């Protein structure tokens, strides 16, 4: 399984950004994919997940601002980020694994496959 993130960058507060995660070698019939982020000195935080059962979950801090989406025809996972805040600054990671129970879908240890990350900086 390979996951490659792109789309990070510098954006002003209140702005928008779309992250992409191109995936390959991914043949799980039942799966979850997710976005995590990690700021310096902080633990890795679950941002959003989407699973083959159709359910999507969002972290409390991004609910209503971020949207996770998947395009299987393009083998790409997206994270649409709106109304960005300085506290959204972090390295963002794409993750994937066989589907797990709902309580575990935004928990980093639930995922064995990770991308290398893309940096998002929100600053004026």
Task: Kindly summarize this structure in a few lines.
With about 120 residues, the chain is mostly beta strands. The protein contains no helices and eleven strands.
What keywords describe this structure?
globular, single chain, mainly beta, 4-stranded antiparallel beta sheet, 7-stranded mixed beta sheet, 124 residues
What does this structure look like?
- The chain is mostly beta strands.
- Helices cover 0% and strands 50% of the residues.
- The chain has strands at residues 2-6, 9-11, 17-24, 31-38, 45-51, 56-58, 66-71, 76-81, 90-98, 113-114, 118-122.
- Strands 2, 4, 5, 6, 9, 10 and 11 form a seven-stranded mixed sheet that branches.
- The protein is globular, with a radius of gyration of 13 Å.
- The mean pLDDT is 96.
**What radius of gyration results from the CA coordinates?**
13 Å
Number of helices: 0
Give the SSE order as H and E letters: EEEEEEEEEEE
The number of E-state strands comes to 11
- Approximately how much helix is present in the residues? under 10%
Topology of this protein?
Blueprint: E1 2-6, E2 9-11, E3 17-24, E4 31-38, E5 45-51, E6 56-58, E7 66-71, E8 76-81, E9 90-98, E10 113-114, E11 118-122
Parallel strand pairs: 2-11
Antiparallel strand pairs: 1-3, 3-8, 4-5, 4-9, 5-6, 7-8, 9-10, 9-11
